[in-house]
Write a structure and sequence with these properties.
Layout: E1 3-6, H1 17-24, H2 28-39, H3 45-54, H4 61-68, H5 77-86, E2 90-98, H6 99-108, E3 115-124, E4 127-133, H7 142-152, E5 159-163, H8 169-174, E6 177-181, H9 185-188, E7 193-195, H10 198-207
Parallel strand pairs: 1-2, 1-5, 2-3, 5-6, 6-7
Antiparallel strand pairs: 3-4
C-alpha cells in the first residue's frame, strides 16, 4: 500500500486561506506582510501563524465560513484524488493551514481524502479568539507523516510527499519519494521528482503504477 501526502496552499489549491480571511476581515495588507516576512525567513512559521491569527480576533464565525467557501482545488485535483483512492492509495492533506479551509475546498469539489492534518482557528461564542491550535503549529510535517504511515500500516519508504515550500521540507525529506510541485529553489534540491502542473502530476502517478489505469 502507498500513502500520498499533499501540501494544500499553492499545491492542491491556488487559494491562500490566510489571504482570504484577511480580505474578508479587512486585514489583507497586514496578513500579506506577515506571509512575506515568513518567505524571507525573517520570522519562523509558528510566529507568523500566531500573528496572522491574532489579526482575526473578534471575526464572526459566519465570516470565517464565507472566506473558506472561496477556497477551491486546482483543476484536475478532484479527478486525481479519485483515481488514487480507487487504486487503493491512501491520500492525506498535510498542511500548516486551516482544517476547515481544506474541508470546504474538498466539499466544493465533491471529493474526499483519507486524512486531513491541519491547524484550527479557536472559536468561542461564534467568534475567533485570536488563538490557533492543531498538529502543525510549528510547520513541521515529518512527525505527522510518520504517524499517518503507522496508522495506515504503510512503510515510510512507501510514502510520497508532494509540496512546494520551505514548510514542506521536513515532509519531503522524510518520505520515500519527494515530489516538488513548482518548488521554491531551496526545496527543489531535495526533490526526487519535479512537476509543474496537476496534469503532469497525475501522469507521473500513472507512469509509476501509483494510479492503476485499469480501475
Amino acid at each position: 500500500m502507498t500513502l500520498v501526502a499533499f501540501d494544500f496552499d499553492e499545491t492542491l489549491s491556488q487559494s491562500d486561506p490566510s489571504i482570504l480571511l484577511g480580505r474578508e476581515y479587512d486585514v489583507a495588507t497586514e496578513m500579506r506582510g506577515l506571509l512575506e516576512q515568513g518567505v524571507r525567513d525573517e520570522i519562523d512559521f509558528e510566529t507568523s501563524l500566531q500573528e496572522r491569527v491574532s489579526l482575526l480576533e473578534g471575526m464572526p464565525e459566519r465570516r470565517v465560513e464565507t472566506a473558506f467557501e472561496r477556497c477551491s482545488l486546482r483543476d484536475g485535483v478532484a479527478d486525481m484524488i479519485t483515481a488514487l483512492r480507487r487504486s487503493d492509495v491512501r491520500v492525506a492533506v498535510l498542511t500548516g493551514s486551516f482544517e476547515r479551509a481544506v474541508e470546504a475546498a474538498l466539499e466544493q469539489a465533491d471529493t474526499t481524502v483519507d486524512h486531513v492534518v491541519a491547524n484550527r482557528l479557536v472559536i468561542e461564542n461564534s467568534a475567533v479568539t485570536g488563538d490557533v491550535d492543531g498538529p502543525v503549529l510549528d510547520g513541521q510535517k515529518d512527525g505527522p507523516l510518520g504517524e499517518l504511515a503507522v496508522a495506515d500500516g504503510v512503510d515510510l519508504e512507501q510514502t510520497i510527499a508532494v509540496g512546494n515550500g520551505a514548510t514542506d521540507l521536513s515532509m519531503l525529506r522524510a518520505a520515500g519519494t519527494a515530489v516538488g510541485f513548482n518548488p521554491e529553489p531551496v526545496v527543489e534540491q531535495y526533490c526526487d521528482v519535479v512537476v509543474t502542473s496537476i496534469r503532469k502530476l497525475h501522469l507521473y502517478f500513472e507512469q509509476h503504477g501509483i494510479i492503476d489505469t485499469e480501475r
